[in-house]
Design a protein that fits this description.
Number of strands: 6
CATH class of the largest domain: Mainly Alpha
Radius of gyration: 23 Å
Number of domains: 3
Shape: flat
Largest sheet: 2 strands, parallel
Number of helices: 13
Length: 262
């Protein structure tokens, strides 16, 4: 049938494919037939190196970039079955999801399940008093998904990542070093951050020495599993570090300034 009729085969989540599946795909790709193969996969580290090499041997990959605000709005409308979404709701979901379609779907469902929004005759009704409740929580399924990526990390990188959640928009080595409970050295923290970057959890901010979470949701999920006492202690240390930094020339902590002048 493949040799006579145009056929499309779509395979999702190919990063989970076993060797037999990859062997079949390569066999299909070499057939002289009107056949379209459409394969989607997460990139490494979610895709094992051998699987990723096998996929690249089939065809060059087309990278799907995060959705922009307009695309986020369209996806929200489709998910909720409404004609329009208030701009501030779109902005809230876009900021938390980072444009990740799967995250957007989970957050849209959570908007309804928490009562933050209600759909009536294809129109969205927003309950402003419940939006804060929605923002304070994460869907259980989404939180489990986010934390499963963190579970693959080494113990040291995991703990440094939890410490980094104390900072909001950005953080750097000096900030982490100042508040880290175990007093890790700069070189150790740099190794932790490199591991986190390889896993796609944090990224460097271009043109600076600072880092940030690639998705605010990952930061939120990690904050939620810290105890109230841990969050309070880390916040207090971070505030002391901020005040010490702002009181020295160039915004450098006294320790860094003395090291540079040595």
């Amino acid at each position: 049938a493949l040799e006579t009729a145009p056929t499309a085969i779509i395979l999702d989540d190919a990063h989970r494919a076993d060797p037999l599946t990859m062997h079949v795909l390569h066999g299909l790709a070499t057939m002289n037939a009107p056949l379209l193969l459409c394969i989607t996969s997460r990139p490494p580290p979610d895709a094992p190196a051998e699987t990723w090499r096998s996929l690249e041997a089939l065809a060059p990959a087309s990278v799907l970039h995060p959705l922009n605000r307009r695309e986020t709005r369209l996806l929200l409308c489709a998910r909720l079955g409404v004609a329009g979404i208030p701009p501030h709701i779109v902005e809230l979901v876009y900021a938390r999801s980072g444009g990740n379609p799967m995250f957007i779907d989970h957050l849209a469902d959570h908007l309804q399940s928490t009562g933050a929004v209600r759909v009536t005759d294809h129109h969205l009704v927003v309950h402003a008093e419940r939006i804060e409740h929605w923002r304070a929580e994460l869907p259980v399924a989404l939180q489990s998904l986010l934390l499963s990526r963190v579970d693959r990390l080494g113990t040291d990188a995991q703990f440094s990542l939890k410490v980094a959640t104390t900072f909001d928009a950005r953080f750097d080595l000096e900030g982490l070093r100042a508040i880290h409970p175990f007093g890790r050295r700069r070189e150790q923290l740099r190794t932790d951050l490199e591991e986190l970057e390889q896993e796609g959890i944090v990224e460097r901010i271009p043109g600076t020495s600072a880092w940030r979470f690639r998705h605010a949701l990952v930061r939120d999920a990690l904050r939620a599993i810290l105890s109230e006492r841990q969050r309070r202690d880390l916040k207090r240390k971070a505030e002391r570090h901020r005040l010490a930094r702002s009181s020295t020339p160039g915004g450098l902590p006294a320790t860094s300034r003395s090291q540079r002048s040595a």
